User: Which sequence fits this backbone?
């Protein structure tokens, strides 16, 4: 137990015991959330909450208005088309052109129940294309729930921490996995949750090359769309664009989440974008599970039909209105979320000034960008030990150990829920920690 801590140490220890958790440091995101809710309730003290990636901003108003209008018109009574309402599909296609500079027909632009469902549907479909190719390769660190999805459906996966395989080194590393012929697909997020590294064009070209060589589908998770704030990605139809695999290969699936970019997490609507070539491709082995051999048809009328028969009708109208406003330049969604980068910059400095280190600190020779997440450590402690202690200081986050990272000393911090008014508390708590532990 820690002494002289900002939060009453007896109460913290009692709540940890009551939680039944063997250790705070190894708990999942939701377990930590529950524990901290309990400690806050018992002590009346507000934590610096950095464990969960929830948007910290109000939902995009144009979406809310459109959704209310759609509900008033009665769409709640009607099943939406599984492949999505036509105006939304057209707007997704335009969005991909405007912000990625890639051409995808509306047919392959499909709303899903959050990008989480897009991932689940894709895992189910891509692992059934070719008998024997039933594994996914993750370029880690990554989002733990994707692995949970594969575990639930019983397909295999492998992963590696990319930090030591940036640039040209990525090619040989990818070859070493994909040349086994066991992998149907590869998945990474860009910008990366949790490290916030961003693949550059050379790396995307390497991923495309190696995947083409072994007929592997690239699944690109753009949950933090246009949030590499080092570049101005905010202007529709103008370079620079969100870096994407869509510009390097013909066989890809993009997952574009509405949760963070448009602060629309609650309505569970995201976008799955299937390249034209992949959509129309035939895979004879699909017949084992679906009526046809065509990828796009099997995805929509096989997998998505079976999962949820489409996505909330009113939320589709919301997303349609949001994208229409973004495509016209009226909605400056990137400017709205820039505040995450501004907060990260200040918070990282507070950690560094108080003896902490940034774990993933470099991005191809440049300092890592400031964004939705950052990673930190404290000398001489593992991430698990550090998290165990930080709860006594009113600070909560998650260990990098659950993200597939090799950096076991590390912790992931999410900036979204921390208010500017809490920076003073964060500073004094980090100071107290440093005093007690150096
Ligand atoms: C990397 C990554 N992918 C996917 C998701 C899920 O997105 P959605 O809310 O659209 O299901 C998240 C959410 O935190 C994420 O961080």
Assistant:
């Amino acid at each position: 137990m820690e002494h002289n801590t900002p939060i009453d140490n007896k109460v913290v220890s009692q709540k940890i015991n009551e939680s039944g958790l063997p250790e705070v440091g190894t708990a999942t995101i939701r377990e930590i959330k529950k524990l901290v809710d309990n400690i806050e309730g018992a002590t009346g003290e507000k934590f610096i909450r950095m464990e969960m990636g929830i948007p910290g901003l109000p939902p995009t108003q144009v979406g809310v208005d459109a959704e209310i209008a759609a509900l008033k018109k009665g769409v709640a009574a009607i099943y939406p088309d599984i492949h999505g309402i036509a105006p939304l599909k057209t707007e997704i296609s335009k969005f991909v052109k405007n912000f990625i500079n890639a051409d995808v027909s509306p047919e392959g632009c499909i709303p899903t129940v959050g990008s989480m469902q897009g991932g689940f549907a894709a895992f189910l479909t891509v692992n059934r294309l070719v008998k024997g190719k039933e594994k996914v390769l993750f370029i880690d660190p990554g989002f733990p729930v994707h692995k949970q999805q594969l575990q639930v459906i019983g397909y295999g996966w492998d992963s590696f921490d990319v930090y030591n395989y940036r640039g040209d080194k990525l090619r040989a590393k990818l070859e070493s996995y994909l040349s086994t012929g066991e992998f149907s697909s590869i998945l990474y997020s860009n910008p990366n949750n949790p490290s916030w590294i961003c693949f550059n064009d050379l790396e995307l070209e390497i991923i495309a090359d190696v995947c083409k060589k072994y007929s592997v589908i690239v699944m690109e998770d753009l949950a933090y769309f246009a949030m590499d704030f080092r570049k101005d990605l905010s202007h529709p139809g103008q370079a620079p664009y969100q870096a994407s695999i869509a510009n390097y290969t013909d066989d890809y699936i993009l997952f574009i989440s509405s949760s963070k970019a448009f602060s629309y997490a609650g309505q569970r609507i995201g976008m799955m974008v299937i390249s034209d070539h992949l959509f129309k491709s035939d895979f004879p082995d699909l017949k084992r599970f679906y009526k046809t051999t065509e990828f796009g048809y099997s995805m929509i009328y096989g997998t998505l039909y079976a999962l949820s028969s489409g996505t909330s009708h009113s939320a589709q109208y919301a997303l349609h209105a949001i994208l229409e406003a973004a495509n016209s330049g009226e909605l400056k969604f990137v400017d709205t979320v820039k505040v995450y980068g501004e907060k990260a910059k200040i918070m990282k400095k507070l950690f560094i000034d108080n003896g902490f280190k940034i774990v993933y600190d470099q991005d191809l020779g440049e300092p890592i960008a400031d964004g939705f997440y950052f990673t930190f450590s404290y000398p001489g402690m593992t991430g698990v030990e550090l998290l165990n202690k930080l709860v006594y200081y009113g600070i909560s986050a998650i260990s990098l150990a659950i993200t597939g990272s090799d950096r076991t000393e590390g912790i992931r911090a999410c900036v979204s829920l921390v208010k500017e008014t809490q920076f003073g508390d964060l500073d004094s708590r980090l100071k107290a920690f440093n005093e007690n532990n150096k």
About this structure: The CA atoms of residues 200 and 243 lie 7 Å apart. The chain has 14 helices and 15 strands. The longest strand covers residues 183-189. The mean pLDDT is 96.
